[in-house]
Amino acid sequence: MSLLEIEGLEVTFGQGEGRVAAVRGASFSVARGETHCIVGESGCGKSVTSLAIMGLLARGATRQAKRMEFDGRDISRLTEREMSRLRGHRIAMIFQEPMTSLNPAYTIGSQMAEVRTRHLGGTKQAALDRAAELLGRVGITAPGMRLGQFPHQLSGGLRQRVMIAMALMNDPELLIADEPTTALDVTIQAQILRLLAQLQAELGLGLLLITHDLGVVARVAHRVSVMYAGEVVENAATADLFAAPRHPYTRGLLECLPIPGKVAPGAPLGSIPGMVPKLTPGFTGCGFRSRCSLARAECAAPVALRGAPHLYRCVVDA
Fold this sequence. Notes:
Rossmann fold, alpha/beta, 2 domains, 7-stranded mixed β-sheet, 32% helix
């Protein structure tokens, strides 16, 4: 059984004519010990999906799903108090921006210790010992000293490592990482990805990784969901997706990459023409049809995923 099962997730913002469908019928699963990547361009609904799972959507947002289960439990029906017991304990999240996700008014140690004592109790000293242990485990030198520092005293890479250590304070079963390497240089990015892969293998975590970087996906993912305009348009094992992408959007993304051996140095990269549609009330059908060279009349009607186990949302045969 999968650790996380999401089926038909819908997230909308606003009311009436101003309503926006940020996520439209998203479905995917994450198994224990698996790294599942959600990939897509900015604004496609990746981060909103992760916040919907955590129950952290902004006021005015509406969330509904056919099925939304964590370890067999329907988390869409939990009260806020019940969800708060789960969040940060069995499900943890590394937020997108480490520069602003840590509270500047409190030390690293006090913020990490609170995560432990709030859910598991115990003394603050025991929580600080656990925090120091995890800071060392994620590669931070002199962890005892770091506990007494404030976020502004750490570099971006160190703050990202602190966020990872904080997420692991209560030994979660599912870790959601939202763009954990976006603000980092390539050297630190590689270190963070190796660290996540190592921790995931050691602890048997289910890892849901949100990214727009297909290079990251190729290195760490077991399975990939490609999102566009709020929908999962393709879902496949990583090797299958890169070897034989079936949705026109996925093929367009891969053609934009400078792949050694396939794209000559200096040669122009591919591009996807057009703009992402406005997901206003009444919008139906394939969100990619206005940018797709294969579009036909039936693309204006709702398009279902097909082709299991390599799923894709397109009326044209791959």
